[in-house]
Amino acid sequence: MNKIIFILIFILLRLSYLNAQSLNYYQKIKDKNKTSINYSKNILQDLKKDNKNKLDQLYLIQNELNKRKSTITVINQELSLISNDISRKREQLKELYYQLEIEKNEYSKLIYYAYLNLSVQDRLMYILSANSFNQAYKRVIYLKQLTDYRKSKYITISSSITKIDSSIISLNQLENEKKSLVNEKISERDSLYQIKRQLNLAINDLRKEISKIEQIEQKNRSAKQAISNSVGKEISKSISKTNSTSKSQGLKTGKITGADFAKYRRQHIWPLKNFVLLHKFGNYHHSVLTNIVVKNDGVELGAKPGSNVYAIYKGLVVNIIAIPGVGQSIIIRHGDYYSVYSKLGNVYVKKGQNVSRGQRIAQLRTNQKLEKMSFQIWKGKEKLNPQKWLKRF
Asked: Please, which residues have CB within 8 angstroms of residue 246's CB and are 6 or more apart in sequence?
């Protein structure tokens, strides 16, 4: 029975440890969401001062909405883990109480037996009535073992009481954590409702300026197309050049292969340290112009003007392109993969230069309070979803 209870307690403790690890992971996500919300709020305040770039204001509000939704989802997962942990703790406490009751009963029987039969005189008579010295010695050993056994039982009971006290403290802490999470969820939910109202007001306000929004989006589509065409041509040239001079090109890039790049799928760093995800990869309906489908070959990130841009992985700078009205684009080759950084201001690398992971390669422009950077990942001529290759942010 003791062995089974020990195994059960070990399993429960192991599960509690794993839960603690998961809770730490969820806390990191919440902290990142909070950082992103504060970052977008700061930029939003600057935009509101001039009452300009209302579409950008909308994107920043959407970012906060998405991050608060993510936080609520994480809190629900935390609550589920803690509730399970509380149930296990209660089960563990129940088993400890059960074991303690058994130990107390055994100990009380020992004490009662000693009281009835083993007074000091009884022990002395028990030893002296032995038939031989050898038998007397064995009786002395037996009495000592009996005394030691009672002591061990007392120690076991004390240990069990300590475990129970510790489990009660741990259970109370979990209950408090659960209450705190419930309050946090209520707060986030209230904030979410406020942001939804703010978002709806922003959308209704922008619908009054449909013609202006259509012009902006047309300009954005033209910029995206210009980037796509220019980058596509450069990547095609790079592929052709690589095929014809694969040996020398391999030496130039330090023998970086597509397998090297692919090995770190979902682990590559983001090209900006602080940013707001404005547009995801793929096709989806516009927030205001619902009849228009937005098409993205990569992701669009918003950040403060002059923010540093970093290489997501080591590679060779294939080319640096200046696109009129859009800014500069850097194309870096990683074997048969390419990372593309567009709408840049100052550039700090040159064509043919090898770069390392996390190296500063450029800065964003400084024309607006919210600058946007387009980031793409290609495999050959195929455009990939960057979010499936970069770390969760």
From this structure: none
Spatial distance between the Cα atoms of 156 and 143, rounded to a whole number of angstroms:
20
Ordered by start, the domain boundaries in the chain are 2-207, 230-388
| Residue ranges of E strands in the chain | 276-279, 282-285, 293-296, 299-303, 308-310, 315-323, 327-334, 337-347, 354-355, 360-364, 371-379, 382-384
Pick from 35, 53, 31: nearest CA to 44:
53
Q: Which residues make beta-bridge pairs with 382?
A: 379
pLDDT at res. 105: 81
The string of DSSP letters for 169-198 reads HHHHHHHHHHHHHHHHHHHHHHHHHHHHHH
Residues contacting residue 237 through CB under 8 Å, at least 6 positions apart: none
The domain over range 2-207 is classified in CATH as 1.10.10: no
Residue 130: partners with Cβ closer than 8 Å, 6 or more residues away: 136, 139
- 232: number of Cβ within 10 Å: 15
CA 236 from centre of chain: 37
Structure tokens given for 135 = 């038998």
Please report the beta strands in 99-226, taking only residues with DSSP state E, as ranges in sequence order.
Answer: none
Are the C-beta atoms of 328 and 321 separated by less than 8 Å? yes
Sites in the chain below the pLDDT cut of 70: 1-21, 110, 112-128, 130, 142-143, 244-255, 289
pTM, full prediction: 0.76
Structure tokens given for 329: 């684009």
Residue 109: DSSP 8-state: H
230-388 maps to CATH 2.70.70.10: yes
Residue 4's pLDDT is what? 53
Separation of alpha carbons 338 and 332, rounded Å: 6
Beta strand segments in 203-314, E? 276-279, 282-285, 293-296, 299-303, 308-310
Structure tokens at 3: 């062995």
What sign does the dihedral 197-199-202-208 (CA atoms) show?
negative
Token pair listed for 242 = 């690589």
